[in-house]
Description:
Blueprint: E1 3-7, H1 12-23, E2 27-32, E3 43-47, H2 53-62, E4 67-70, H3 82-102, E5 107-113, H4 136-149, E6 156-162, E7 164-166, H5 174-182, E8 186-190, E9 199-201, H6 202-212, E10 219-222, H7 231-242, E11 247-251, H8 253-265, H9 273-278, H10 288-294, H11 302-321, H12 338-343
Parallel strand pairs: 1-2, 1-4, 2-3, 4-5, 5-6, 6-10, 7-9, 8-11
Helix pairs in contact: 1-6, 2-3, 3-4, 7-11
Amino acid sequence: MKSALVTGGSGFFGGILKRKLLDMGVRVINVDLHVDEDKHPELTSIQGDIRNRELMDRVYRETRFDAVFHCAAMLAHAVEDKNLLWTSNVDGTRIVAEGARNAGVQSLMFTSSNCLWGRGFDHPLTEDEPPAPIEIYGRSKWEGEQILREFARDMNVLAIRCPTIIDFGRLGLLAMLFEFIDEGRRVWTLGGGTNRYQFIYAQDLASACIRGASHTSSEVLNIGSDNVKSFAETYQYVIDRAGTGAKVANLPKGPALAAMKVAYHLGLSPLGPYQYKMIAENFLFDTTRIKSRLGWTPTLTNEEMLWRAYQYYHEHRREIERRTDVSAHKQAAKMGVIRMLKWVS
């Protein structure tokens, strides 16, 4: 690979992938709504909108890309304008794919999501499980996957379905958890915290995307960590290493879920339908296929990557609190009514 287009390369995961490609000697063009803080002789950063067809046509005209990594996406808790989210995630995906096809690009990688489902399962999900998203972000990712199927005969399109992406620097909704731990407060689970929810280490996801650029067919692949422990065990691991005196505590599942639902619909909480439905459920992907197809394996467990992310928060907390005009995962989400829970923790 000599050159690659990365959409969303100023964001948390897009930035990690972009830097990994640059370290490999790949020339990278980044298109993102946000300013790119990275500088590199082989990096060209364009602050722009992937929905701008004229801009994207010019990007494809000026550089011949060996692969496109489509990571740009709007998150539901980060934008009030849901039409902006939908058009960015859906119309933007079509424009990126059409430009790639017209330019003769051979491979397009798409970061999809486990938000394609809004409930837990008692078994690891395979790629054949029918999606059933319950909120706009999940629906937009599912629509993006279906759009990309239209291009599967013209180029190799790989949709990688990702659980929560975590690494040093990941914030967003996780920053609320980190604030509780950092201040030595009670860290709340629902129903005893025995449920298991899979993460993916950002570096492992980037490696899979790069391997996928050499894949010679179009398909959907699940990705995720191995040896997933319960929420309570994962939180306890971070708490023990942080040494702040925080404790894992429990809220009754039924009343807590009802309260979160009401708070969201009143506009008082950043936790949307996916978060408040999944926070006490089990959700794991079956990753057999990606290991077989790409020869890929994960390197970090949930607790190890969450510890890395907490370390970053602890070391940069004051600077994080002053951040503006960065992507959703690179700033702390606003707590809203959850701050009241913090006061009694």
